[in-house]
Hints:
This protein is α+β, with helices and mostly antiparallel strands. Helix content is 32%, strand content 23%. The chain has three domains: 2-147, no CATH class; 158-220, no CATH class; 226-290, no CATH class.
Amino acid sequence: xxxxxxxxxxxxxxxxxxxxxxxxxxxxxxxxxxxxxxxxxxxxxxxxxxxxxxxxxxxxxxxxxxxxxxxxxxxxxxxxxxxxxxxxxxxxxxxxxxxxxxxxxxxxxxxxxxxxxxxxxxxxxxxxxxxxxxxxxxxxxxxxxxxxxxxxxxxxxxxxxxxxxxxxxxxxxxxxxxxxxxxxxxxxxxxxxxxxxxxxxxxxxxxxxxxxxxxxxxxxxxxxxxxxxxxxxxxxxxxxxxxxxxxxxxxxxxxxxxxxxxxxxxxxxxxxxxxxxxxxxxxxxxxxxxxx
Length: 292
Ligand SMILES: [Zn+2]
């Protein structure tokens, strides 16, 4: 069972209250659920009421039970289609981790898992065909939501980006991309800093572990909040050498020492360092508050 929070803010037309929603499936399917909620919320903008009754795993697949009232018939059909699509997708996405998966039988218990999660603690899952409907037009290969997800083998072979950061582009600009230090990327020297091509899809687990861009799949390494990351970036840049894999950018986890180093190096304007320090202090404060 998982708890999802923040639904009333994200989907204002679906009648969620402020309480967390309990769902009876694993986190790997959260992305499917959010895609369904986004579709339903868009449809319900036209009026009527939507009530989510239950989300659970049945016979290996995702089932979303809901009720609508006072909706136009085309709205009702659109939501039913989105619900069916969510179910169809679930048979190709690992319920545990969100990578590509297939239905397995664990001594008769059905679960959709990737090859890594087919190796259970107690026994090994056996791939299982069905229950697919020959008349169902759904094709996972034609659905980018499923098709962009890595298999375990592809994930394991992918280059890694450490201390990654999403660069959002302006309205109407190109799609966002990621900055970071690259390792195992054939076209970039290990430990060099750079950016990817535009993002196609990103892992919906928290924290995300992969991103697919126009050119390739990457594994995602460690994440630092943006203000801390900026100080690390400049400290690493002033050190004038590539990052070693496993080493934190900036050479340590001592941000105060990095600020002193940056001020003493004299290569950055002091107003720029003041601004970075201010943003870092505020970020630390917010972090403290959010942790209670
Ligand atoms: Zn998995």
